[in-house]
Design brief:
Number of strands of chain B: 28
Distance between the termini of chain B: 49 Å
Radius of gyration of chain A: 16 Å
Helix content of chain A: 10-25%
Shape of chain B: globular
Oligomer: heterodimer
Number of strands of chain A: 11
Number of helices of chain B: 25
Largest sheet of chain B: 7 strands, mixed
Largest sheet of chain A: 9 strands, mixed
C-alpha cells in the first residue's frame, strides 16, 4: 500500500504520522512538500497531518488549504483517492471544501491535550473497518480549535447518512463540538477528517494501543 | 524623530542605559573619546547584568562543570552531555521573568522561543521542554491574570513549535506578587560529533543574517532584565518582544538542514541584545573583529536607526559565519522555508566591532572588552542568618488527620497542576513515556534508550537557609531522575534572586551557589549551562531566592522505567531512607497551620547518594513496582499521589504527624511484590527501610481511624486549580 504525508510550513506531527503509517504498511510514506503540484502515481492514501500550518494565522488551515498541493489533492479526491486529515489536517481539508462545517475555538478557550474516549459510530470506512460499531477507544487530543460546527441542515444530513465516524464518549468532549462530533466522512466515503490523534496511541510506549486497529483498517480498505 | 548618532551623552542618558558612573568612566578610558549613542547602546547591552554576569561570575566559577560525560560546559548557547552511541543531549534553562510580568503571554512565549533557539543553534533537535513558574499569592488581584497569560504563552509557543512539554513546577507565594518567575528549559538531541558553536574562525568570511526581520520590539530588553521594577513597570511593555513560533519552527528546520549541508562555521542565535550580543560573542570568542553593514539587515519597519537595529530583540533570528563556497546552497535552503537570508558583514583581523549604516561609521569598539573581558564585580555579601530548627513537638498535630490531609492536598502549592499541563502538548513526537504528574518526564530517544528530565527548587527552603536550600534543589532533582530509574547526568541552573547590590541578597546568591556546588560535586552531577536573573525586586521587595535546577538523566532500558502509580493490591508500601520528623518549612506547616518558620530539612549528601543508588538498582532489577520520591508534603503526599495515579487505595500503619508530613530528605516510597527482598537489599546498602502499609483494592487511604476515599481526595487535589482559575475561589 502506497501512502503519502503532506508537509506545510508549520506542520509538526508529520513524523508521528509517518511512523504510524510505516508501522502498519511496512513502507515509509512519501513526504509531499506543499509546493508540489502533482501527486505521485499509484497512491492509495494521502494524509494531511497535524500541526500549526502557517502558524494558524488568518484562520486554522485557511492558508494551507489554498496551497498548490491541496489543489492536486482536491482533484484526486474527487476521483476517489482516500484522504485522511487529522487535527490541523482536518481543519485544512475542511477549509479546502473536502468536508462540510468548520472547526472553531474550543469552548474552554484553552488548548487542550488529554486522553478522551472515542466511540466508533461508523465502521464501514477505510479507517474503521477493523472496529466494531459502538466500540469505545482511548485516544489523545491536542488542539485549541477543534470545536466542530456546521449548519443544522448539514448536521441532520451527517447524522442521517451515518457520516459521523467518531463521537466523543463518556462525557469526554474536550472542545464543545456539536453532537460530540470528533470525526466525519464525506458522502463518497473516501475523505475522513478527525480532531484526535490516533497516531499517538499505537504502541506500548503510549500506554495503550487502542488506535492501532484504525491504522490496520487501511490495509483492508 | 530619529535620534542623531552624535547625540550629546549626558549623565541622564548614561543612567537610563543602566550604566553606573564608574562603568561609564571605564568605557571612556577604553575608547579614549566620547561614545556615539549607538556605542553607548551597545556597551549598555553587553555590560548589563543579564549578558555579562558581572555580579555572579566570580561565584559561578566555583561550580563543578566537568565530568566524564560533559562535551560542553557553560559559556556556549547550551550545555552538551554525551549519552553514548554517538548521541549527545543539549540543554539549558533560561529566565524570562521581567517581560512575563509586564506582558504574560508574549513574555513567556518568547522565553520558550529563546531557549528552544539556544538548543537548536547547537545542532540539536528539541525533544522536550520544561518550565518552572512562580506566581504571587493566589489572592493577589494580578495573580490569576498572570497564571492565565503565562500558561497560554508557554503552551502557545511550545505547542506550535512542536516540542512536548514534559515537566515543570508551579508555585505561589506573596513574595512573587510584584515579580513572577518564568524559567523555561529545553532539551535537544544531537549527534555527538556534530555540535555547532558560536566561535567564529577565519578572516574575511561572510557574516550572514537569517530568520525573521528586525523590528523595533524588545529594544533594551536585556537592560530591563537588569533593573528593579517599580509601579511604572507597565510602561515598559514596548520592551517586551513578540513571539512567532511559526517562524521559529521554520528556522529550526532550515538551520538543521543547513548544518547537515556542512556550510556552517559558527552560529549564534540573536537572543538578549540581539544583533549586538550575537556578533560580539562570535567575534570575541574567535579573536576576530566583525564589520557589520546595517543597510543590508532585513527590517520590517522603516527608517530604523543603527541604535535601534543593534538593540532590537526581535525574535527568531540567527547570525552565522558560513563557508563562502556554500553561500548559494545556504540561501536556497532559507528561501525554501520562507526566511530571510542576508550577508550583513564579514570577519576581520582588527579585533574591532564596526557598525556602518547609511554611509557612516556608527560605532567602532574594541570587541574583546565588550565581550569576554567585560567588567566583573566582587560585590559585598553577608552570611545569611540561620533559622532555629523547629522541633516536631512544637508543631501541633492536627485534631482531624483526614481534614488536614485534604486541606494540604488541596492547597495551592500542593494541588494537581493538571489545569496547567493539559494546555501543553505533552505527546507530540510520539516519544513521551512519562508526561507531567510523576517524578520526572521521560522521552524515548531510540529503541530502549530514554532521557529523563526534571526541574526543581524549594524557594521557601532557600529563603530559610540558602546553603541547605541550594543543596536541596540539586538533591531533589537528582532524586526525581533516580525515581524513574534514570542515571542523573548533569544540570542547568537558573539562579533567580533580588538586587545583588544589597549585601543580604548577594549573601543568598553566594550561599546558594555554594550549596549547589557542594551537592553537584557530591552527586557527580555537573553544571553544564545556566542563566542568572538578578534584580527580581519590586519597590525594594525581593522574591524568594529561587535557584531552579533543571536536570537530565539517562535511562538505558525503558522497559525498566518506574512510575509513581500503585500497581496491585496486596503489595507492601515501603518507606526507604528512614522515618520523617522534620516539619520546619514544610507544606503541612504552611498549608494547615499557616506558619512559615524554622530551618529547612538538612541534606545529607552521602545518604542521598546511597539511597538513590539503592533505588536505581531496585528499579533495574525489577524488584519494585512503583517509586515516588518524598519531598513537599512528606510521606503523606507521596502515598496520596501514588494512590491517585494507580486508582488503588492503601492501608497505612499508624504514623504520627511528624512521620506523616515530615519533609526529611533522601527518602522514597516504593511498592514491591517481595517486600522482604527489598528490605534485605536496603539493609545490605545500609539504607533504613520499613514497611508502612499495603496497597488495597478498596479505593481509600486508611490510617488508624482515618478513612479517606480516593474520590474525595481526588476532588480536593484536582479541584483547586480549575476552581481558582474560574474565579470560583
Amino acid at each position: 500500500m502506497k501512502t503519502a504525508v503532506v508537509t506545510f510550513p508549520g506542520i509538526n506531527r508529520e513524523t508521528d504520522m509517518m511512523r504510524a503509517l510505516k508501522l502498519v504498511t511496512g513502507k515509509t510514506p512519501v513526504n509531499l512538500w506543499h509546493t508540489e503540484t502533482e501527486l505521485p502515481r499509484g497512491l492509495d492514501l494521502v494524509v494531511v497531518p497535524g500541526g500549526f500550518s502557517y502558524g494558524d494565522y488568518l484562520r486554522c488551515g485557511a492558508i494551507a488549504a489554498r496551497s498548490p498541493i491541496m489543489s492536486a489533492i482536491r482533484a484526486k479526491a474527487l476521483e476517489g483517492l482516500k484522504v485522511l486529515g487529522v487535527c490541523n489536517g482536518f481543519q485544512i481539508i475542511t477549509e479546502a471544501g473536502l468536508l462540510p462545517g468548520a472547526l472553531v475555538r474550543n469552548a474552554s478557550l484553552h488548548f487542550v491535550c488529554r486522553e478522551v474516549q472515542l466511540r466508533v459510530e461508523n465502521n464501514r470506512t477505510f479507517f474503521t473497518n477493523r472496529m466494531k460499531k459502538g466500540a469505545v477507544v482511548s485516544c489523545p487530543v491536542a488542539h485549541g480549535e477543534g470545536n466542530y460546527i456546521c449548519d443544522p441542515k448539514t448536521l441532520t444530513a451527517l447524522e442521517a447518512e451515518g457520516r459521523v465516524v467518531f463521537r466523543y464518549a463518556a462525557g469526554t468532549n474536550p472542545n464543545g463540538a456539536m453532537n460530540d462530533i470528533a470525526g466525519i466522512v464525506n458522502q463518497a466515503g473516501n475523505v475522513i477528517g478527525m480532531m484526535p490523534h490516533p497516531e499517538n496511541m499505537i504502541e506500548p510506549l503510549h500506554g495503550r494501543m487502542d488506535c492501532l486497529p484504525l491504522f490496520e483498517s487501511l490495509l483492508a480498505a | 524623530m530619529r535620534i542623531p548618532n552624535d547625540l550629546q551623552i549626558t549623565p541622564e542618558l548614561i543612567a537610563q542605559h543602566g550604566l553606573k558612573p564608574e562603568e561609564y568612566q571605564h568605557f571612556l578610558d577604553l575608547l579614549g573619546r566620547e561614545p556615539t549613542i549607538t556605542e553607548l547602546g551597545i556597551v549598555s547591552a553587553m555590560w548589563n547584568e543579564h549578558c555579562s554576569y558581572k555580579s555572579s561570575k566570580k561565584w559561578l566559577k566555583t561550580l563543578p562543570t566537568a565530568g566524564r560525560r560533559v562535551i560542553q560546559g557553560p559559556g556556549e548557547n547550551a550545555g552538551v552531555v554525551d549519552i553514548g552511541d554517538g548521541q549527545a543531549i543539549v540543554f539549558k534553562m533560561e529566565s524570562h521573568n521581567h517581560p512575563s510580568f509586564i506582558e504574560p503571554y508574549q513574555g513567556s512565549a518568547t522565553g520558550v522561543g529563546g531557549i528552544l533557539r539556544d538548543v537548536f543553534t547547537m545542532g540539536a533537535r528539541p525533544i522536550a521542554a520544561l518550565n518552572a513558574l512562580r506566581f504571587g499569592d493566589p489572592s493577589h488581584p494580578r495573580t490569576r491574570h498572570l497564571v492565565s497569560g503565562v500558561v497560554a504563552g508557554v503552551g502557545g509557543y511550545g505547542n506550535s513549535f512542536g516540542v512536548p512539554t514534559l515537566g515543570g513546577e508551579v508555585n505561589f507565594h506573596a513574595r512573587y506578587n510584584g515579580n513572577i518567575l518564568v524559567n523555561a528549559m529545553a532539551v535537544g538531541l544531537a549527534d555527538a560529533d556534530r555540535i555547532f558553536y558560536s566561535k567564529a574562525k577565519g578572516v574575511g568570511l561572510p557574516v550572514v543574517y537569517l530568520g525573521a526581520k528586525t523590528g523595533r520590539d524588545g529594544i533594551h530588553g536585556a537592560t530591563m532584565a537588569s533593573a528593579e521594577f517599580d509601579d511604572k513597570a507597565e510602561e515598559k511593555r514596548p520592551t517586551v518582544q513578540v513571539g512567532d513560533p511559526f517562524t521559529e519552527k521554520c528556522l529550526l528546520e532550515a538551520c538543521l538542514e543547513l548544518m547537515a549541508s556542512g556550510a556552517v562555521i559558527a552560529i549564534q542565535d540573536m537572543g538578549a541584545a540581539g544583533l549586538t550580543c550575537s556578533a560580539v560573542e562570535m567575534g570575541a570568542k574567535g579573536d576576530l573583529g566583525i564589520d557589520l553593514d546595517l543597510d543590508r539587515v532585513p527590517c520590517r519597519e522603516e527608517r530604523m536607526t543603527a541604535y535601534e537595529m543593534m538593540l532590537s530583540e526581535s525574535q527568531e533570528r540567527m547570525l552565522m559565519v558560513l563557508k563562502p563556497e556554500k553561500e548559494k546552497e545556504a540561501e536556497a535552503i532559507f528561501r525554501k522555508w520562507g526566511l530571510d537570508f542576508a550577508i550583513v558583514g564579514e570577519t576581520t583581523d582588527t579585533l574591532r566591532f564596526i557598525i556602518r549604516h547609511e554611509g557612516e561609521t556608527k560605532a567602532d569598539l574594541p570587541i574583546k572588552q565588550l565581550g569576554d573581558e567585560a567588567p566583573e564585580y566582587d560585590r559585598p555579601w553577608v552570611e545569611p542568618k540561620k533559622q532555629p530548627t523547629l522541633m516536631a513537638r512544637d508543631v501541633p498535630a492536627p485534631r482531624d488527620m483526614k481534614a488536614a490531609l485534604l486541606q494540604m492536598m488541596a492547597s495551592p502549592n500542593m494541588c494537581s497542576r493538571r489545569w496547567v499541563w493539559e494546555q501543553y502538548d505533552t505527546l507530540i513526537q510520539s516519544n513521551s513515556a512519562q508526561v507531567p504528574g510523576g517524578d520526572a518526564g521521560v522521552v524515548r530517544i531510540k529503541g530502549k534508550k530514554a532521557i529523563a528530565v526534571s526541574s526543581d527548587v524549594t524557594p521557601r527552603y532557600v529563603e530559610a537557609d540558602p546553603f541547605e536550600g541550594g543543596k536541596q534543589a540539586v538533591a531533589e532533582c537528582w532524586r526525581n531522575l533516580t525515581a524513574v530509574g534514570a542515571e542523573p547526568l548533569a544540570v542547568t541552573d537558573n539562579l533567580n534572586f533580588g538586587n545583588p547590590e544589597k549585601p543580604e541578597i548577594m549573601g543568598q546568591l553566594v550561599f546558594a551557589i555554594k550549596g549547589i556546588g557542594e551537592a553537584c560535586r557530591a552527586l557527580d552531577f555537573p553544571v553544564v549551562s545556566g542563566n542568572v536573573s538578578l534584580y527580581n525586586e519590586t519597590n525594594g521587595q525581593a522574591i524568594l531566592p529561587t535557584p531552579t535546577i533543571g536536570g537530565v538523566g539517562l535511562l538505558r532500558d525503558l522497559s525498566t522505567m518506574a512510575t509513581i502509580a500503585f500497581k496491585k493490591s496486596g503489595q507492601k508500601v515501603i518507606e526507604i531512607g528512614g522515618p520523617g520528623g522534620h516539619l520546619g518549612q514544610s507544606i503541612y506547616l504552611a498549608a494547615v497551620l499557616g506558619r512559615e518558620e524554622g530551618a529547612p530539612p538538612p541534606v545529607d549528601l552521602a545518604r542521598e547518594k546511597t539511597a538513590g543508588n539503592l533505588i536505581r538498582s531496585l528499579i533495574k532489577s525489577a524488584q519494585v513496582t512503583a517509586v515516588h520520591d518524598i519531598s513537599d508534603g512528606g510521606l503523606a503526599a507521596a502515598v496520596a499521589e501514588m494512590a491517585l495515579a494507580g486508582r488503588l487505595g492503601a492501608k497505612l500503619e499508624k504514623l504520627d504527624h511528624a512521620q506523616f508530613f515530615g519533609e526529611d530528605q533522601a527518602r522514597y516510597v516504593v511498592t514491591a511484590r517481595n517486600a522482604r527482598a527489598v528490605l534485605a537489599a536496603a539493609k545490605k546498602a545500609r539504607v533504613p527501610a520499613r514497611i508502612v502499609g499495603e496497597v488495597t483494592a478498596t479505593p481509600s487511604l486508611k490510617m488508624g481511624r482515618m478513612t479517606l476515599s480516593l474520590k474525595d481526595l481526588r476532588q480536593a487535589h484536582e479541584g483547586w486549580f480549575p476552581a481558582y482559575m474560574a474565579k470560583e475561589l
